[in-house]
Amino acid sequence: MSDAALAQTDVYDVEGVRADFPILHQEVNGHPLVYLDNGATSQKPRAVIDAIGSYYLHDNSNVHRGVHTLAARATESFEQARTRAQTFLNAESSKEIIFVRGTTEAINLVARGCAAPLLNTGDEVLITEMEHHSNIVPWQMICKEQGAQLRVLPIDERGELMLEKFDELAGARTRILALTHVSNALGTINPVAELIARARDKGIVTVIDGAQAAPHMNIDVQALGCDFYAFSGHKVYGPTGIGVLYGRMPLLREMQPYEGGGEMIRKVSFEETLYAEPPHKFEAGTPNIAGAVGLAAALEYVDTLGLDRIARHEQALLEYATRSVKALDGIRLIGTARAKAGILTFIIDGVHAHDVGTIMDHEGVAIRAGHHCAMPVMKKYGVAATTRASFGLYNTLQEVDALVAGLRKVKEIMGA
Ligand code: PMP
């Protein structure tokens, strides 16, 4: 679809979108593939696959080093990808965009480079009960090393943050607030702008895990006012092994590098090394150039389609799926927040989530079963695992019907 065609119509042409994703057009176990595991990773449009292919076919070289033509082209593509990510997040400068492997690495980088020097014995890091393990474990590790305490903002039965507890937990010793924009296990969209503002008033550094937000909504880091924002390329229709950490420049200047090596230095001698300016200070070694090129194509694809339109489409899928699944007997929804992204998590009475996932796979429906790297959320609801359907920009209402038909079959087979 061209930009002009899109501008002329607000109709969401899901079939046109699906035509851009070659992988969707296959059968699995004799059924048309219904891919509802977008929360884990999303599929890639041809534009992304072609951009990576074209990079390797025509431009491959190392970046920032060579004087030859291919090196210049590779460097230009890599730096253009940075600018594309800047636009995507509405960062003030492309120098605030650091390429990393993904959200996990981004959070570890902030924990090591920014939090560790900030935390003294008795200081506190505040996270929430709905965090993914990648926004728990790095903080736990740093707290242990620094003699700091991890505090946890709880959630209620619906899966919403208990905001009334924030002031009690964010005290004089709190240095960091790290929270997810959208919960991967519950779908909850958190009021991050409000929490960032409240944290900033208290001088707390804010770190937002945007892994599940970036594919579903417009993100404006300047409007949010956060210090750090992280997302993974592979969940936003780009390749694996590439992600973005946004950091506000004053903090990036202060932040310590995570790894040392080539690319991140200004001058090296045996006595002393002078680091490069951000973002290069944090990008030691040869980066994932092809990944950045693919990510840029993915962000362009999503921006062209329009995140507002994508969000409207996915909300329609979520509402229809919620209504349809709720109408089935013996199914309990886990995560019923008032503001949700396209994630539907549930358990079927008397059936293990893995059995649900296996039977659904026989029907060609790909969903996720397990603890979703959010064991504290499972504990909160008293379950070992849940089943999750997560929607993407190419899913259809007919696929929601296939999900519901599959769940009926599960109930029939398992006598639930
Ligand atoms: N945070 C959230 C909310 C996630 O859903 C995920 C991925 N499941 C991550 C962090 C980690 O992302 P990655 O594995 O791409 O580093």
What do these coordinates show?
This protein is an alpha/beta fold. The chain folds into two domains: 3-32 and 307-414, Aspartate Aminotransferase, domain 1 (Alpha-Beta Complex); 50-303, Aspartate Aminotransferase, domain 2. It has helices at residues 3-8, 14-19, 46-59, 69-89, 103-118, 137-146, 166-169, 192-201, 221-224, 249-254, 289-305, 307-326, 353-362, 375-381, 397-414, and strands spanning 27-28, 31-32, 34-35, 97-100, 124-128, 149-153, 174-180, 205-209, 228-232, 243-247, 265-268, 273-275, 331-333, 343-348, 365-366, 368-370, 386-390. The radius of gyration is 22 Å and the shape is globular. Mean pLDDT is 96; it is low at 1-9. The structure holds 4'-deoxy-4'-aminopyridoxal-5'-phosphate. 4'-deoxy-4'-aminopyridoxal-5'-phosphate binds at residues 102-104, 132, 134-135, 180, 184, 209, 211-212, 232, 373.
